[in-house]
Amino acid sequence: MPRSAPGPWYALPFTKANILVTAGTAAFILLTRSAHAAYFGAGTLVCTLSAKALKRLLRHSRPLTPGSPQPRTYGMPSTHTSAIAFQSLYILLTCLSSSSPGLPRWARISLPAAYGAYAAGVAGSRIWMGHHTLPQVLAGAGFGAVFACGWSALWRDWAREEVARPVVGLLGGWVGM
Questions:
Q1: In three state form, how does the secondary structure of the chain look?
Q2: Domain span at residue 33?
Q3: What are the residue boundaries of the Phosphatidic acid phosphatase type 2/haloperoxidase domain, all occurrences included (predicted)?
Q4: Domain membership flag for residue 50
Q5: If pLDDT is split at 50, 70 and 90, which confidence band does 144 have?
Q6: Any domain includes 82
C-alpha cells in the first residue's frame, strides 16, 4: 500500500497508531495519577526519542514505494515499532511482577496478551504500508524490547512508587494536575 493511500477503515488502529498510543498513554497517566504510569509514559517518550536519534546516526534509507516521493527521513530502526514494543514488553513485565498487586489474575494475562497482539499488528503494518523494511521493524522491536527491560529494571531497583510519588506530585502541582 503506498504511503499516500489512506487505506481501509479497519486499518485505522494501525495507520493512526501514534495518535491512539499517545492518547491512550496520556489518558492512563491522567486517570490513574500514578507515579508508575507517569514513569511508563516517560519511558515511552525516552525510548522514542532514543530511536529517532539512532535513526539519524545510522541513516538507513526507507523503502521506495512506487508513486510516492522519496522519503525525507530515515527508517532504521522503526520508531513506531520501538515505542509499541517498549510498551508491550513493559506492560508484560509489570503485570508479571509484584509491583502490580491489585491487578486481578485475568487482567495480568489478558492485558499483556491483547496489547502484544496490537503491537504485532502495528509492527506488521509498518511493512505492509511501505514505511519500513522487515530488518528496520525487527531492529525497532529489538530496540524497544531492550529499552523496556532496562526501564523496568530501573523502576524495580530505584524509582518505585514511594520514591517517584513526590516528584510526580511536585510536577503535577506545577502543571495544574
A1: CCCCCCCCHHHHHHHCHHHHHHHHHHHHHHHHCCHHHHHHHHHHHHHHHHHHHHHHHHCCECCCCCCCCCCCCECCCCHHHHHHHHHHHHHHHHHHCCCCCCCCHHHHHHHHHHHHHHHHHHHHHHHHCCCCCHHHHHHHHHHHHHHHHHHHHHHHHHHHHHHHHHHHHHHHHHHCC
A2: 12-62+73-175
A3: 37-152
A4: yes
A5: very high
A6: yes
